[in-house]
User: What shape does this take?
Amino acid sequence: MSATRVQLLSPRTLPLLSSGRVALFLQGGGGPHRGGVGPRFRSLTSPPLSCSSSSPGRALSSLSTTRRGLPKEKMSENGMMSRAKVLTIDTMNPTVKKVEYAVRGPIVQRAVELERELSEGMKKPFAEVIKANIGDAHAMGQQPITFFRQVLALCSYPELLSDSTFPEDAKSRACRILNSCGGNSMGAYSASQGIESVRQDVARYIERRDGGVPCDPDNIYLTTGASDGIVTMLKLLVCGEGAMRAGVMISIPQYPLYSAALAELSAVQINYYLNEEKCWSLDISELQRALDEARLYCNPRALCIINPGNPTGQVQSRECIEDVIRFAAKERLFLMADEVYQDNVYAEGCQFHSFKKVLFEMGPEYSETVELASFHSTSKCYMGECGFRGGYMEIINMDDDVKAQLTKLLSVRLCPPVPGQALMDLVVNPPQPGEPSYEHFIKERTTTLSALAEKAKLTEQVLNTVEGIRCNPVQGAMYSFPCITIPERAIQEAKELGQQPDMFYCMKMLEETGICLVPGSGFGQKEGTYHFRMTILPPTDKLKILLNNVKAFHQSFTQQYS
Amino acid sequence: MSATRVQLLSPRTLPLLSSGRVALFLQGGGGPHRGGVGPRFRSLTSPPLSCSSSSPGRALSSLSTTRRGLPKEKMSENGMMSRAKVLTIDTMNPTVKKVEYAVRGPIVQRAVELERELSEGMKKPFAEVIKANIGDAHAMGQQPITFFRQVLALCSYPELLSDSTFPEDAKSRACRILNSCGGNSMGAYSASQGIESVRQDVARYIERRDGGVPCDPDNIYLTTGASDGIVTMLKLLVCGEGAMRAGVMISIPQYPLYSAALAELSAVQINYYLNEEKCWSLDISELQRALDEARLYCNPRALCIINPGNPTGQVQSRECIEDVIRFAAKERLFLMADEVYQDNVYAEGCQFHSFKKVLFEMGPEYSETVELASFHSTSKCYMGECGFRGGYMEIINMDDDVKAQLTKLLSVRLCPPVPGQALMDLVVNPPQPGEPSYEHFIKERTTTLSALAEKAKLTEQVLNTVEGIRCNPVQGAMYSFPCITIPERAIQEAKELGQQPDMFYCMKMLEETGICLVPGSGFGQKEGTYHFRMTILPPTDKLKILLNNVKAFHQSFTQQYS
Assistant: This one.
């Protein structure tokens, strides 16, 4: 690929308008755009618009996509027949258009853009773009756990099993995994539910975690990251039309996977608001309000909880979880517990309680009836192995017929990625006391978790020194979600641009400081309040600079618009 | 996990009835079942049905799931309140229930069952189960390509970069991949569209493959296996309701991913029949017939082709591909070319022609208008790395607005598994002449492909010696799909059991010989004809035995029912 053939600007890097449609710049370039990406929309190798017959790589008919209501066929400028496209924004699946996912939305696309501009030598008021938008630990410099990667290398290339530099416990884990793979290879498909020995290890992990509450490996499904499990469960739950359309309760603020999946499934999103004044706690009265209102126009089926919270960083108390379980039982809701941050608890007095454990401690009235799916992942906690897309879900009290349907549905996609399954196995079955890798493993894990705890504290402290920023304690997970005061004039200017005020704020911050955050509107927030989500993942030194830059930006922004 | 806690028989291993519901055995065990799995339905650790309060791990309310129309709450036998489940077969998403996937259907569940029984020492008329149902090369003993696995090990554990036993070309590939990863780690999320350098390598590969037809990396999307790309494209194309519901043309026989995805999306499956008499060739007149009929009740949007064919093993001629492209242009259909077997071409005179190449050689009238998505994978060809779930799709002439929607949709799932992306990179950028690993790579690749060619021939030859079996040449891919004559009495017996005759045949073969095949009814076939799909993947020696066992079974089956 010669340098000139690389498209510098692609449709993917164009900002989405609020309607979900992409700005189009070909017809005179008069459309709304931000960050100056418009004029360079076409590929560097694109032929002039009037010349087409000699350019096999370009579609003349791309012209036609900028207007609506075209005839089926039309004459192009050089007299050639040009067909209207089969698949256009008007003829595509309308539910896909409704999907939004702010964590990788327009602001991130602009960040990628800015990185490219910097690498081309363009002058900016900052030396690098810092992506604090996503919980991507390794990208922020966190090191992988040595033991995990040793086992993965052994599984990838089993010839290394005879290499004496690898510790014996890594070798025995690798052998156990390989022995469970068809042909002793990670290249074989696994069972659709996941490798049986991995599911057994997951079950034992859950039993240890939950103080002996039994776990059946047959209730464990390995998944392609937690997202895959969550979407699959929502897919099973969705049914009905009109007033009987399925509704799913999600917290606001929420992780936008939920809203995106519900939009795609044409299910009703039932919002319940977390209480920012009480450190993003969950009030049962608010659940009740949201549910009662929703029953007027849909059929509420499930209640989703993220604990520790994303984007809000709270850790639910045991009492709160009990209340939620009682509520779900009383109101006949399927419980979905997103527990991917279960090791990320920092605040004193806070502790992770799994929904499973609490459910079983509440006695058979609940443990034998309440339907629960709980999700975990290799992507967060101390390992942060997002790229491997490993995860599992445990299902409790699921109807056997439905379970068979679930397994059938998963079989269509054959199996979750086997390296991700292997990694999940290591997470639930790490080195044990007495094994050669134990001490180094504990050291690495402790270092990472301690650093995260320190950064959680630091983030809260620095942000709360800024007038106009109010940040709850980051009790757990990987994010702060502070409330920001945006001056009325800035709100007006944003509205004139058709932007959410916090999107306007974050976009300005990105352009001026290189810091990439996600506006609170991407997660949902009480009307009239504004927030951003920022990860605590950058290395401490960098995080300090970042927080000071956020502070300086907020002050100058406030001054500018006051 | 103590041995007694492992559930020997789970709902997942129960045969599905034709209605898609699982057989239930709790209420007296009188339901239909096969292979004697019924009586052992409950877990070994399950409490007796009348005892529940002391068994926290089991759901009393599972009792209630075996009947329909339960009240919201009911008294159980011991007087405790038992809630009816929220999620039941009656209240779940109805589109999921319509999904079927024969490649991992009831016959495979029974095969897993039989393996377990064998391992427990149960006596069977065979010593092992041979799973010839799925294209899972490594599980059948095919060895991974050394170079690929070396690079994956280096990427997993970069400390190995200083190990002198690894060849330099493997190290340079690993460095290139790691340099494209956030934090130089496969544990970081990639861009949702896939790692940019990998997409560049894919584009160069396509250009080489297609004799210089240009390929833009921005048109490449890395995927979680080809299945993921196919489902995503179908998802974009689906729209409309009633008579305007989207229709998608698929070949019969087909790979059941297509029918499963269409069922889940509530789209109309438009069947066009391949011509078995002409070696499963595709007649345009048949496409026209299928389309004209379908236009009466739906809105045909796309045409799917699998070339080389799955399950039918044919390789399309260049002329045929041209005709298909002309047909798609004329009828305004989005073309989907499933080309995952592009290296699996064995028959003399046959050659793989990509739809992309043919499209571009047909001139701008087609190359600038016909919308095409083409799919490839790491799972097939000479590498057979199914477990890594690597793949890509190339999209041609896609509307820019739709492309932005596609990228947005993919971002919800964050990214395809990075090890699969790395593997895809190696497949499209293998060792080159002059590099240290080149010769060994070529030797491994040639050995695998030659063996497959030999086994393709062998399969056809042996099957055609059997009276009542007629097998087309296996020109490509990995399967034979012979036509079998089933005696009228066997057809009657199958019907009495509510089974498809070829399911009855394959289930009998499994029970008597341990050979696991997929009945033709799982792929679709002309009414009144019967087939099975069998992979050619077992090692040659084993394949010979397998073919002879198939022959012997067919003869005795025919004799028994004549």
